[in-house]
Amino acid sequence: MSKNIVLIGFMGVGKGTIAREIVKQSNIFAIDTDDLIESMENRKIKKIFKEDGEEYFRKLEAKTAKWLEKNVKNTLISTGGGFYKVKNLKDIGEIIYLKSSFEAILDRIKKHPNGKKKLKKRPLLKDLNKAKKLYESRIKDYEKVADIIIDVEKRSPSDIAKEIIKKAKIEKRK
Ligand code: S3P
């Protein structure tokens, strides 16, 4: 396999958790676009939004997408919830959409031991009415760009990871 596997989906759906679980069960290595952006800028996403605004952040995502296309292969890439909009998304790898209802996403965040922190670090989740509208404006597009859609609602990360490993033909850990 030389292609990358790219996880997309709404904030809080569990992209990072599922990526870590896939790594645990397979031989693939993983990176995350928000982590790449934070290290490139040497500041947190929340601070980037606060100091320079969303438009600037989207430019950083576009820059990251170009770098990924050119330099990264055989890697699992988890992404920020708005990353799916980059122009070259399909050239980065196979796109896997983690699908869940908005209510289940909120539930997942609330139940998480670090739930408060998770809400705090995501500027676009601050206002839940706005977040719901954002979710609704994106769901169709997530499905449109996806090569594989995985329903993640009410399932364990381990079970979801198994399905992704099978469908994306990732080499299992021995
Ligand atoms: C965003 C999602 C965040 C982060 C930024 C913007 C979005 O990532 O990239 O706050 O536009 O949906 P997560 O999906 O990991 O929360």
Short recap of the structure:
By secondary structure, the protein is an alpha/beta fold. The protein has eight helices and five strands.
List the defining traits of the structure above:
binds shikimate-3-phosphate; Rossmann fold; about 170 residues; 5-stranded parallel beta sheet; globular
Question: Could you walk me through the main structural features you see in this protein, from its secondary elements to its overall organization?
Answer:
This protein is α/β, with parallel strands linked by helices and 174 residues long. It has one domain (5-164): P-loop containing nucleotide triphosphate hydrolases (Rossmann fold), CATH 3.40.50. It contains eight helices and five strands; from the N terminus they run βαβααβαβαααβα. Helix 1 (15-25) crosses helix 8 (157-167) and helix 2 (33-41) packs across helix 3 (45-71). It is globular, with a radius of gyration of 15 Å. Shikimate-3-phosphate (S3P) is lined by residues 11, 15, 34, 45, 80-82, 122-124. The site of shikimate-3-phosphate has 10 residues, from loops.
